Every structure is written in C-alpha cells, then in structure tokens.
Amino acid sequence: MAIRSIRTIGDEVLKKECKAVTEVTDHTLELIEDMFDTMYSAGGVGLAAPQVGIRKQIVVIDVEDGNQYVLINPVIEEMSGSQTGQEGKAGLVTRPSHVKVRALNEKMEEFVLEADDFLARAICHECDHLHGHLYVELVEGPLEDVAAEEE
Q1: Cα–Cα separations (whole angstroms), residue 80 to 76, 95, 129, 136
Q2: What are 44-76's pLDDT values in tens digits?
Q3: Which candidate, 56, 60, 75, 137, has a CA 20 to 30 Å from the CA of 26?
Q4: Catalytic annotation, residues
Q5: What's residue 151's pLDDT?
Q6: What distance, in Å, lies between the first and last C-alpha atoms of the chain?
Q7: What is the mean pLDDT of the chain?
Q8: Cα 5 from chain centroid (whole Å)
Q9: pLDDT at 150 exceeding the cut of 50
Q10: How far is CA 114 from the centre of its chain?
Q11: What pLDDT was estimated at residue 149?
C-alpha cells in the first residue's frame, strides 16, 4: 500500500490520548496495511496509529514469531514479572515479562492475547503510545540523545 511518515519526539500528536475505534471501514483497513508497510520499511517490530499521525487506538506488531498482530482498542488486563531491555536507542526500560491484553481484530471481534517476553514488551510499548506516553519517559539511567539519532 503506502509508507507513511513516522512522527518523532516533539510532535504533539504523540502526547495525546487516542480515540477508540467504533467501526472498521475500508479507510481503517487501508491504515492498518499502511502501518505494517511503514513498520517494515523502518525496520520496526511495532507501530501505533499516532506514530503516523492518526489519533486512533490501533496497534500493529510483528515480532517475527509467524504472526502479524492487529490490536484495536487494546486494554492490558494483567501484567506480571519484569524484564529490562533496550528500547529504541534511548536506553534501558523495564516492562512486564507477561501481559494479557483484550482487543478487537479487523472484524471488530474481541479476543484475548497472552504474551511473554519480547511480544509483551512490544505490546506495552505500543499501547503506551495510544495514551500519549513515550518510552523515553521510562528510560532508566542516562537518556541517549535521540534527537541527534533521528536526523
């Protein structure tokens, strides 16, 4: 489909709460395809709609486990354990090592996904975007100069 511009730190859309999706239209399906194309083009494993300038609660994830995940209106219901690892190029972030998330798929059908380790990290990271939170807020220790690396 199309590769969209990824918004970077400093863009106001990244600090705003996203709106729930009430119906999936052809436009929504196109957005989801574009989000996957954009994520793959950037070499990422996850992308949230506000990262392409759309304030909707949509997340796409591919952690190379054979699945492409689409989470619409995701709600993390359970978290346990902890893992600390590199996120982006900003530094170390501690996240749960296990999550249970309730969401809708592209057909607006509800499902529950339980995830561990890297997938759990990706879900938490992308869901934070839907509520205007960036991983740089969670970095432990010194924050790398992400602005210089984004140029």
Answers
A1: 11, 9, 20, 22
A2: 999 999 999 999 999 999 999 999 999 999 999
A3: 75
A4: 126
A5: 36
A6: 25
A7: 92
A8: 15
A9: no
A10: 16
A11: 43
Amino acid at 49: A
CB 61 within 8 A of CB 123: yes
Q: For residue 106, give the DSSP letter.
A: T
C-alpha torsion angle, residues 128, 82, 149, 12 (rounded to 10): 10
> Residues 6 or more apart from 99 whose CB is under 8 A from it?
76, 78, 79, 114, 115, 120, 123, 124
Contact 40, 77 (CB under 8 A): no
| DSSP annotation of 69 | E
Contact between 4 and 47 under an 8 Å Cβ cutoff? The reply is no
Cβ(41)–Cβ(64) below 8 Å = no
Paired tokens of 121:
């990290």
What residues contact 54, with CB distance under 8 A and at least 6 apart? 31
